[in-house]
């Protein structure tokens, strides 16, 4: 007979995953200067054909995805130097990518563990994890396109 994972065990596993991601990012940034991961990310974007608004949206979505498992402060601190290095190596305005990181790190709607208020509402309102996914993913996408459109309008 198979066992079903309890909600507490799933929550603990997600917290552990978030800690592993955060520790890995801190390790990479301690081991390498920010230019090295930025150059690797820039090379990946060039190979995949992402330039301009695609790159801006990619940085936003990556920051938003990371902030679902790690706190927004950690994502902003770790990812901002990488975004600035990426902007320098691709010729984009560093302010645009920095704003994409800031907005992306603040867009934590899809999980109850991404932000403290989500966790409080999750417990008090008897919501399920899937409730956050249903509404939160749509909110993340709307926020992504609105923020990137505003950043492109501001910085061209």
Describe the structure.
This protein is an all-alpha fold. It has one domain. It contains 7 helices and no strands. Helix 3 packs parallel to helix 5 and helix 3 packs antiparallel against helix 7. The radius of gyration is 17 Å and the shape is globular. The N and C termini lie far apart (58 Å). The relative contact order is 0.13. The mean pLDDT is 78.
Order of helices and strands: HHHHHHH
Main sheet specs: none
Query: Taking all residues together, what is the mean pLDDT?
Result: 78
Query: What is the CA-based Rg, rounded?
Result: 17 Å
Count of individual beta strands: 0
Instruction: Report helical residue fraction.
Output: over 70%
Taking pLDDT < 50 over at least 5 consecutive residues as the criterion, the unreliable ranges are: none
- Class by alpha and beta content: mainly alpha
Number of helices: 7
Number of domains: 1
- Approximately what portion of the residues adopt beta-strand conformation? under 5%
Distance between the termini: 58 Å
User: How would you sum up the global shape?
Assistant: globular
SSE blueprint:
Blueprint: H1 7-31, H2 35-48, H3 53-67, H4 72-90, H5 94-106, H6 116-124, H7 129-155
Helix pairs in contact: 2-4, 3-4, 3-5, 3-7, 4-5, 5-7
